[in-house]
Write a structure and sequence with these properties.
This protein is mainly alpha-helical. The chain is built from ten helices and two strands, in the order ααββαααααααα. The longest helix has 33 residues, at 245-277. It is globular and about 75 Å long.
Length: 278
């Protein structure tokens, strides 16, 4: 008598399959519209009860205007441009620092591992705002850094610590056979990293790296505490001058949201591209 194994199927399996087939991009669009309508209704109701009158028509001039046919950027747009500048420079140094720290931790150097570990623990276990103050008021004057360079250094050190762990996780996730095959072909450690390991790890680290870039973009708002004219400080100045607190900060949040969603979408397409190529 032959032994047979019966696989018990869920009675709702057909329903899950139907729902999966039915799901389409329009379903997500409808959900988003419902969310926006509900949030708008909530804002209107709360403003009526508080007796607050929205003045959104005054906001566009602080983003951009046209003066005699010429395009003129407003205070919020100037702050956004500065935010892009400090984010881009800090990201470049954070990537270099993060990759270097990850490679040191994966090396056989005892002192290198100790220094890298101390750096990671100090940076990841202290708030970014404290680090900005420390770099600006203590380290900056010693080595001759101005406000901008002090903020770049603080952001690079902070984000580099997290990026190093992303790089290290992507590298160690690869099978050891990749190393053995590279060494059997006579490749050095440098060429193995450059031609074999890092190209394969890019696809794996892309999603968390995108999240870290978005975090850096939002964390750059903290540089306003040392009077750097980023988007957050520009919004604070406009809100203080016009008393349009809700409108200005809602508009600022919308600007941050637009560009973070754009970054997430770009990373999604890059991830799909690498998946196809590999």
């Amino acid at each position: 008598m032959e032994n047979t194994i019966k696989i018990r199927r869920s009675p709702f399996r057909w329903l899950r399959k139907k729902v999966f087939i039915f799901r389409s991009p329009w379903f997500d669009i409808i959900q988003y519209i419902i969310l926006v309508v509900g949030f708008t209704w909530l804002m209107i109701e709360s403003s009526e009860r508080l007796g607050y009158y929205w003045q959104w028509y005054r906001i566009p001039r602080y983003i951009f205007t046209f003066d005699e046919g010429n395009f003129v950027i407003g205070q919020l747009m100037e702050g956004l441009i500065f935010t892009f500048k400090i984010t881009g420079i800090s990201l470049l140094f954070a990537l270099i620092l993060g990759l270097g720290t990850a490679l040191i931790r994966l090396s056989s150097s005892f002192m290198g591992n100790v220094v890298a570990r101390v750096y990671l623990e100090l940076i990841r276990n202290t708030p970014l705002v404290v680090q900005i103050y420390l770099v600006y008021f203590v380290i900056g004057p010693i080595i001759g850094l101005d406000r901008f360079n002090s903020a770049v250094l603080a952001l690079s050190l902070y984000e580099g610590a997290y990026i190093s762990e992303i790089f290290r996780a992507g590298i160690v996730s690869l099978h050891k056979g990749q190393w053995e095959a590279s060494y059997s072909l006579g490749l050095s450690s440098f060429n193995t990293y450059r031609d074999v390991i890092l190209p394969q790890s890019i696809r794996r680290i892309l999603p968390p790296m995108t999240g870290q870039v978005i975090t850096l973009f939002k964390d750059s708002a903290l540089v306003s505490i040392v009077s750097l004219n980023d988007l957050a400080l520009a919004a604070r100045i406009v809100a203080a001058d016009t008393f349009l607190v809700f409108e200005v900060w809602f508009a600022t949040a919308g600007i941050y949201l637009i560009f973070t969603v754009a970054l997430s979408t770009l990373a999604y397409h890059l991830e799909n591209r690498y998946r196809i190529l590999t």
